[in-house]
Amino acid sequence: MRINRNFTVEGMDPFASIKFVPRTSKIVNPDGKSVFEMKDVMVPEKWSQVATDILAQKYFRKAGLPRNASKVHEEGVPEFLQRSIPADGDTRDLYETDSRQVFRRLAGCWAYWGWKGGYFSTPQDAQSFHDEICFMLANQMAAPNSPQWFNTGLHWAYGIDGPAQGHYRVDPTSGNMVRSTSAYEHPAPHACFIQSIEDDLVNEGGIMDLWVREARIFKYGSGTGSNFSNLRGEAEPLSGGGRSSGLMSFLRIGDRAAGAIKSGGTTRRAAKMVVLDLDHPDIQDFINWKVVEEQKVASLVVGSKLLSRELNAIIKACHAWPKMVERFDVKKNQTLRKAVLNATKFLIPANYIERSVQLAKLGATAIAFDEYDTDWNSKAYATVSGQNSNNSVRIDNKFMQAVINNGDWPLYFRTEKEKALKAGRDPKPCETLKAVDLYDQICNAAWMCADPGVQFDTTINEWHTCPADGRINASNPCSEYMFLDDTACNLASLNMIKFYDNATGMFDVESYKHGCYLWTLVLEISVYMAQFPSIPVAQKSYDFRTLGLGYANLGTLLMVQGIPYDSPEGRAWCGALSAILHNAAYVMSARIASEVGAFSRYEANKQAMLRVIRNHRRAAFKTNAAEYEGLTITPVEIDPSKCPGYLLDAARNEADLMLSLGEKHGFRNAQVTCIAPTGTIGLVMDCDTTGVEPDFSLVKFKKLAGGGYFKIINSSMPPSLQRLGYNQSQIEDIVRYCKGAGTLKGCPHINVESLTAKGFTPELIQKIETQLPSVFELGFAFNRWSLGDEALEKTLSIPKERIEAPTFDLLNALGFSKQQVQEASEFVCGTMTIEGAPHLREEHYAVFDCANRCGKNGKRFLSAEAHIFMMAAAQPFVSGAISKTINMPHSATFEDVKNAYMMSWKLMIKANALYRDGSKLSQPLNSVADAEDINVDSSDDEAKADENPNSPVRLAQKVVYRYIANRRRLPDRRAGYTQKARIGNHKIYVRTGEYDDNSLGEIFIDMHKEGAAFRSMTNCFAIAVSLGLQHGVPLEEYVDAFVFTRFEPNGPVQGNPHIKMTTSVIDYIFRELAITYLGRHDLAHVQPEDLRADAIDRTPATPDYEADLSDEEADERDEKSIARQKAFFIPRTENLRPMKGSSEQRYSSTNGNHTSASHEESHSVSLAAKPDDRIRVARLKGYEGDPCNECGQLTLIRSGACCKCDTCGGTTGCG
What we know:
Layout: E1 20-28, E2 34-44, H1 49-59, E3 69-71, E4 84-86, H2 99-116, H3 123-138, E5 142-144, H4 146-151, H5 154-158, E6 168-170, E7 177-179, E8 192-194, H6 207-219, E9 223-227, H7 247-259, E10 271-277, H8 283-287, H9 289-320, H10 334-345, H11 350-361, H12 379-383, E11 389-395, H13 397-404, E12 408-411, H14 414-423, E13 431-434, H15 435-449, E14 453-456, H16 457-462, E15 487-495, E16 500-501, E17 506-507, H17 509-529, H18 535-544, E18 547-552, H19 554-560, H20 568-596, H21 606-621, H22 645-665, H23 679-684, E19 699-703, E20 709-713, H24 717-723, H25 728-739, H26 752-757, H27 762-771, H28 784-787, H29 789-795, H30 800-803, H31 810-813, H32 818-829, H33 864-874, E21 885-888, H34 894-906, E22 911-916, E23 925-926, H35 939-947, H36 952-956, E24 978-983, E25 986-994, E26 1000-1007, H37 1012-1030, H38 1035-1042, E27 1051-1054, E28 1061-1062, H39 1065-1078, H40 1111-1121, H41 1143-1148, H42 1159-1169, H43 1173-1180, E29 1196-1199, E30 1202-1205
Parallel strand pairs: 8-9, 9-10, 10-11, 11-14, 15-18, 21-22
Antiparallel strand pairs: 1-2, 3-4, 5-15, 6-7, 8-15, 12-13, 14-22, 16-17, 19-20, 19-23, 24-25, 24-27, 25-26, 27-28, 29-30
Helix pairs in contact: 2-3, 2-17, 6-7, 9-10, 9-11, 13-15, 15-34, 17-20, 20-22, 20-33, 21-22, 24-25, 25-32, 33-34, 38-39
C-alpha cells in the first residue's frame, strides 16, 4: 500500500520540529509520601506533568535494556527496520528514560511486521508510516491501548525475550496453528478478549481452564469477559447424582484468582467482565452479589475499628486499676466493668473480651488489631469477592416488553434447556418471576453499588456482522468490544482536540481521516504480529481480525468551541465525527482487503455484513425508519440542521465510499470501531475528557492503583472563554477563581510573611512553593513528608510525639484556624468550580457543566439524560459499543436508574453502566479530595433525643434496609422461646423462631380457647409478619406501626415480667418482641434492674407441670407465682436480653471455681439453666416439650395453630 505523508517531511527526523525537555516525575500520596520518582525524563516540552508521570510510571520499560546492541540481518527487510539484539556479554542494566525510545520501539515494531506482512508497497512507504506514527505519538494526536505500550517492540528494539507463556498464533503463510516459542517476539498487544466457558470443571475450555487463560491475559495488561450462563445453577442435578454448587461459588474463585495478578508486576489491575443471561436460575444472587459484598466491606471496616478500640480499652482498664489483686476481677475493678459493658454494648464477641483480659493478665498492654479502611485498594476490599470484575446482565427485547406489560419471566435450569433442545420442545421453567420485580432488583443493585450494568442483547445481535458463525454473547471488561466468543480486539484512540484549529474555529477533516487510515493499519498489523492466550482465540482472531479504533476528548472539543455538552449542536458534532471515523476505518479496511484479501469468514457472512454497512450509511443520511434492514429499534440519526455542513458532507461522502469499496473488495476486518474508556492513554494524550464522556469535573483528583495521586486540571477553559468573548484579564480572573493562584504570594493568612514569623526558613518555604501547583488542598503541601521531621522538630520546635500522632495536622499545629486554612486553600488551590466566578455570565455556565458537581461549592451537573442522548448520537456509527459511565448525583433516586435503563434501550444503545456518586464506599476519581473525619460533640443532641424519640438524632440512629426480593431462609432447626401471658380472660402464647445469628425470623401466635376464625386470623397475621422479617423488613418498623394500637381484649397483663398493661393483643406482642430483640425497655413497665436475682425471690415454689391441676387452680398458681417460674431464670436463647445475668456474673467465674460468697447464687443459676431431662429428651424427639392437658405426657406436636398429643390424641385448642 502507498502511505502518504501529512505531518512529516521525507528525509527529516520525525521529531525535528518538536522540542524535548528533561522532567522529574514524582508521584506522592496526599500525606506527601513518595510513591514513585524518576529524574531526567525526556518528553516533548508541551506535555503536561501528568502525561509525563503516566509515561514514566506506567509505560517505561524499567529493566533489561542493553548498553550495546547490533542489528540482525533479515533477507528483504530494509536496514532501518531490522531488529536489534544485545551485544555478547552486555549487562542489560539500563531502562527507558526518553519518550522517543518508546515512540520508536512502537512505530518501528509496527513497521517491521507491516513490511513482513506485505502491507507496504515500497521501503519509502514503510518509512513514511514509521515517521507519521512517531509524530502523532509525540504530539499526543493518537495512542494505542496500554498492552501495546507494555509489550510491543521490546523484542524488536532491545532483544528482550523470555520463555513462552502458552500462547498460540496462526502462521500467516501456511495458515497452520503454531505454539509460540518466545514471550516477546510476537507481542501480546490486544487489550480486549471475549472467552467462552463450558460447564466442565477441569477439562480444556472448562471452568478451571478459563482461570489459566485469564491469567495469561492479565499478565500482559489486557482484560477479558465471558458469559457464564452455561454453568449450572445451585442445586441443579449432576451426572453423578449429586447437586451443583452453583455459579456463584466459581465466580468467587475466579475473582480471587484475578485479584492476585498484576500485569508484569506493575500496578495495572486485572480487568474482567462477568456476563449472565436473565433466565439463569442464579440470576438474583448474581444481581445482588456486589450489594452484599459492599456491606461486608462496611462491616469489616466498622468492626475492625470497634474491636481495636474496645479491646484495647479493656486492657487499659485492667492496668489502670490501682489494686493489683483486683485488676482482672470484673466485680471489683469498676473501670474494667465499665469497659466490658461498653464492649458488650457494641456486640464485641465474648471470647474476644475474655481474651483481652487474659492477655492483660499475661502482661500485654495493647492489642495490635488491624484497622481496615474503605480505600478501594485496601485489605477490606481485597478480602471480599466481586471486586476484580465488572458485572453485566444480558437483556433482550422480550424481557423489556415483559417489564412494560407487567408480564412473567421464567428461569430455567441449564440441564433442562439442554434436554429441551435435544427433544425439540420448550424448556420447563424452574421458577417464574414477575419481570418488573427482576428489573427492580437490577436497578436497585445498580443504585446501591453501580453493578450490574446492562447489555441489550437483541440490539447487539441485530448489528452483528457475522451471525453465520454464532451469536454475540458477551463483551470485554468495559463493554465496548462485543463480538463472538473466543475473539480479541486491540484498541487505539485519536485525540479530537488535536485536529481542531482554535484560530479558525475549523476541524481539520482531512488530517482526521488520514489519522483514521493510519491507525486502522496499525491495528491490522497488530493482529498480524500478535500471539494469543488460547487456540480458539488465535484461530478466530486470524479468521475475523476485529479492530477497535475510537476517539477521546470529544467533551473538550465541544467546550473549547463554547458548545454545551447537553445540546443538539453537541450531539450533532458527536454523530458527524463518529461517522467520519467509523466510515474511514471501513474504507481503509476495504483498501487493505484489495491488497491482501478480505478476512477468512467474509464470504460466509457477506450478506449480513453488507446489510449492517448499509444501515450505518443510512444513519448518516437521515433516511426513513422503514428503510432500515432487520432492526427492531432504529438509530438516532445526525440532525442536518444542527451539524456544520462540511462535517456532514465528509461523513456522508465517506459512508458512500465505505459501501462502494466494501461491495467491490470486501473488508479485511469484521469490526473496526468501538469507543473505549481511554482512561490511562487519555492522560498520556493530555485529554481533559475520555472517550465520549464529558469532563468528570473541572479539577479532578485521581487516585492510582499502585498508590499516589494526580491533580488534573481542565486546560480547555481559557480557549473556551476566549471563544465566548471574554478578554484576557477576565479569563485570568475566572481561571484563578477555579484552579487557584498556585502560590502563597498574596495569600490571606498563610503567606511568606506569616510563615516566616512562625519560624519557616526560605528553604522550607521554597519546598512548599514547588508543590503548590499540583496539590488539591493546602494541607497536602504542609506535612511531615514534604518538609521532613528534622525541620519540624528543630526549626519549628514541634515535639516528636505530636508529629508522630496519626491525627497530626501541621497547619493546625502552627496555630491557623480551620476558617483561615479554608480561605487560604481557596486562594492557592481554587474553588474548583466556575459557579460564582467573576465576570462569567450565567448563560455560559452550561458550557462548563461536568458529569459531577465541581468542587465543594458547585451545584450544577449534567443529567443522566444528557449522557444517554450523547451515547445515542454515537452508537449508529460504531461497530461495537461505547464504554461510558452515566454519572448520577448522590441524590439520584431508584426511579432515576429505572428510567435511565429504559431510555437507553429505547434509543438503541447496546450497553449501559451507571454510577451514582457515593454508591461505593470508595472511588478512584473524585471531584474533591478525601474528606477529613467529622468529629461532632453529640452529648447535647443525645440528651435531646432522649427527651424526644422523634428527634432527627434519634431517627438518624435507625438502620434502614432496602427491600431485596431474596428471602432469607430460616434454618430447619431453629432456636427461639415461648412466652405465655393472660390479657383479661384471654390466654396468649407468643413463640419466636431465630436465625443462627439470634436475629428474629418468625413468630407464632396462639390464643387459647378462641374461635377458629379469630385463631386463623392471628395465625395468618403471624405468617405475614414472619415473611416480612425474612424479606428484610426491620422489626423496628413493625414495632413503630403496631405498638399502642387499641382494641379489645386489652387491660392488665399477667404472666409477663416486663409488661403489666396493654392496649391490645397486637400492642402486647410487639412490646414483647421489642423488649426482647431490640432492648426497647422504654416500652416495658418493669425495668431489668427490678428483675435481678437480688431484687425478687426466684426460688421455685410450685410444680413444673399442670397435668394434675384444674384450669382454675393452674390460673391461680400463675397469678401468684409467675415471677418465680424457672423459665425466667436463664433464657434458652441469647436474645432474651432482659433476662440475662449481669456482665459481672458472666465474667466473674473462673472455670467453675466460685467464691463462697457467690456459691448460693451460682448454684441457683445452674439449676435454672438446666431443664428437666424429660423435657430435653422430648424436644430431641421433635415434640414441643409441653405436657398434654389430657394425659400429662410430653408428646405434644404442632398441628396448624394447635398442638396434638401423640399419646392420647387430645388437642390444645379448637374445642
